Amino acid sequence: MPLLETIPCQIYLSMRPRSWISVSDRFQAGTNPTLITNATIWSGRLNGLEQFTGDVLLDGGIIRDIGDIDREFVARLDDLVTIDANGAWLSPGVVDMHSHLGVHSNPGLRGSSDGNSHHGPVLPWMRALDGLNTHDDAYRLSVSGGVTTALVLPGSANAIGGQGLLIKLRPTTERSPTAMTLENPYSTNTSEYDPLHGLRWRQMKHACGENPDRVYSGTRMDTTWAFRQAYDKARQIKNAQDAYCQKASTGKWDEIKDFPEDYQWEALVDVLRGRVKVHNHCYETVDLDDMVRITNEFKFSIAAFHHAHETYLVPSTLKSAYGHPPAVALFSTKARYKRESYRGSEFAPKILSENGLQVIMKSDHPVLDSRYLLYEAQIAHYFGLPPNLALAAVTSTPAEVIGEDHRIGFLKRGYDADVVLWDSHPLSLSATPKQVWIDGIPQIKVPHVVDKPAFLQNIPKTPDFEREARKTLEYDGLPPLLPNHTSEGTVVFTNVSHVYARKGDSIVEVLGLRRGHDNGIVQVQRGEIICMGEASTCLELNTTGKPTFVNLQGGSISPGLVTFGSNLGLEDIQGEPSTKDGLVPAPLISKVPAIVGGDGAIIRAADGLQFFTRHALLAYRSGITTGIVAPQSQGLLSGLSVAFSTGSEHRLKKGAVVQNVVAVHVAISHSDNLPSVSAQVAALRNLLLGNGEGELGYWFEKVTKGKLSLVVDVHSADAIASLIELKREIEGTTFHPLKLTLSGATESYLLPSEISDADIGVILRPIRSFPSSWEMKRISPGPPLSDGTALSTLLAHKVTVAVGAIDPSLARLTRFDVGWAALTAGISVSTEEVLALASVNVEKLLGVSGSQSGDLVATQSGGLLEFNSKVAAVISSRRGLVDIF
Length: 885
Hints:
Elements: E1 34-42, H1 45-48, E2 51-59, E3 62-67, H2 71-75, E4 81-84, E5 89-92, E6 94-99, H3 138-144, E7 147-152, E8 160-168, H4 177-180, E9 202-207, H5 210-215, H6 220-249, H7 266-272, E10 276-282, H8 285-298, E11 304-307, H9 315-319, E12 327-330, H10 348-354, E13 359-361, H11 373-382, H12 387-392, H13 396-401, E14 419-422, E15 433-438, E16 441-442, H14 466-474, E17 485-487, E18 490-503, E19 506-512, E20 520-525, E21 528-534, H15 535-538, E22 548-559, E23 561-564, H16 614-620, E24 624-629, E25 637-640, E26 642-645, E27 657-659, E28 663-667, H17 677-688, H18 694-704, E29 709-714, H19 717-734, E30 740-744, H20 752-757, E31 761-764, H21 790-796, E32 801-803, H22 814-824, H23 831-837, H24 840-846, E33 856-860, E34 870-876, E35 881-884
Parallel strand pairs: 1-4, 1-5, 6-7, 9-10, 10-11, 11-12, 12-13, 18-22, 23-24, 28-29, 29-30, 30-31, 31-32
Antiparallel strand pairs: 1-2, 2-3, 5-14, 7-8, 8-9, 14-15, 15-16, 17-35, 18-19, 18-20, 20-21, 22-33, 24-26, 25-28, 26-27, 33-34, 34-35
Pfam families: Amidohydro_1
InterPro entries: Amidohydro-rel (IPR006680), DHOase/Allantoinase_Hydrolase (IPR050138), Metal-dep_hydrolase_composite (IPR011059), Metal_Hydrolase (IPR032466)
Domain Amidohydrolase-related: 90-440
């Protein structure tokens, strides 16, 4: 944006509607026109309700025509590429309104972290453009998820962190950051900034609450004063400019001298002139209220509150903001990672939309991988956001909020040719692009497409969560999570379509009826199934007391899922030390105190278990009945894991601790805090050769004798290869098979036959690979970028594979994670095998015994892996009860 002296008395002009253009300002010469025929088109128009079958013509970097195409015009086009969509869904490109692509680059390296300046709480003159790294590995990954445009923002260390920029994610011939910008104010892509005939919106990042308070050792009062002081400075400059222009307009030239301006503050003056879209990182009611008062004091509008975990509790506060209510940019379920996110609710999108507020789903990439931003919209839809608004939340709504709805976010004539062709309905689980066009240029050279079941072409019919949403508001965001009813007597499940159960290390179907069959009955007494089959078979049995009936409406009963890999069970709020078990002493980093065992110490997670956390209870209500957690460590040695019931009140309750000691856990990684990887492997070798002291030596002796699993958290293929050789070495010395499991294992797919031959198991966590660090750089991206996934490669080589989690707030989505993994694997995987990925396989690889007596989960209206189902009850034989939700 040029200095105000260029047009010192220019009265603010609002954005004009985009007039018809024949060629985009971002058109790349040599791009062939493309005709997409027979598509099912979701245009974004009519509040997201318009959809129709038709054709779309991309030419000159724009959508030349849509619907019934002028065939005579098409016939005159040279080098036309025609694609028959065969009825597949076509949508606008996904718009990520909160990203740090290019400024927090991946893989994460010290030399490419440019998201925050720490030179003061108020820095409106900083620009994300000046730190944009064009070599971020995540660009192509995000494009493969359908993301075509991103708002790249500075981080949230500062109250005013600086100016964001809008980028298109395609590589350009110039290869420069400037060439990636959507609308640049300079002479790039023949695009000129003309202040007399329209406005190019600027974007600015604000943040309040814990982040700036923590970075600058302040309080909310300090941060709020920093805002007010900064805006007062900008207001003084603006008032002086207005006075100058008033005198100039009346010809009083003798009373004025130089135009009053300050280069550092011009962007904040532009905020007060309505030229800037303000994006405000803000969580809690106190901070939301502070910012709303500031907008009214200084008379500027906020485009959107981001993260905004408590906005759904105070919609009237948002509606009292100056100018217009801010939109709200949310995560679907990520919460409780710090205190101000504690009241985050999965029902926030639904509640906010019902209050007439604009809802946007965002990634905060790389906090969440923006490749899967559409998944956030799918989960928001699952928990009650209407389908038209859910899809709009990642396309048309963010485009409108950032002021670019004149060219992106919709499929309309004359708009940018940013288009995604999907393999299934965009709101169905596992929806993946077949192709992505940005500025009319196809972005995936050779798309790898997986055939999907026909039902995924339809909008999922999601469960009714009205009661849960009402309770959330009634209890100020912290509704009780206990079951509605617990029975230690007889419970009869009716209208059951399928029952799956554990059989040794496998899952088998023990009852299968046509869905909707009214006669499927499962009778349970004190948590044990005593009968299943036709109604006439079971209801004649004698029961103790009056039975409780639960109609599953064609749903199913499946083994309870098992979560491993996050800190679920050892923490309630990640950022609050008083709510978590904390870190164990790390032998390779510092001396272990003698009082905990010195060099012979090994810590047990069982001693630090925390029951009744909201993470655990939400996981329980989502079908995860067992958690396995190891002590938290930043070093080589973590300790002994524990298996526990996610639904128990405390450890002394019957069945609360499933297994007190499960496995020994270590980690091999590159870190500033640790000695070399070779030193870590040497230390592990030393322990496996029997050189550990005290209790540490005792447990490692069990490992070397094959009586206890050794779980190594590792990602690099090179480190994995070293571990394979180490296993052979130890087994050649002890003559006992070593039970070794790799956790994390991003690059394990590069060594599938070697892992299989060594009889090593793998727990993929997360199941969606992402190159967050150098040792995770070589991911298997999967469709549409590659044929197959890490999961399919390992399964093809007969490796026992399980799925883990890395975030306790997202562990509850495990059932959808494994469903997604199976649908994108590109191989035939049965329902039983998919369920095993997050149940018996986890138990087998970690060493949980007695799995045949595990819990069962009953779901209404569908199977546990489906978007149309809802967990209705947990059948717990080990606790002798049924919890009914």
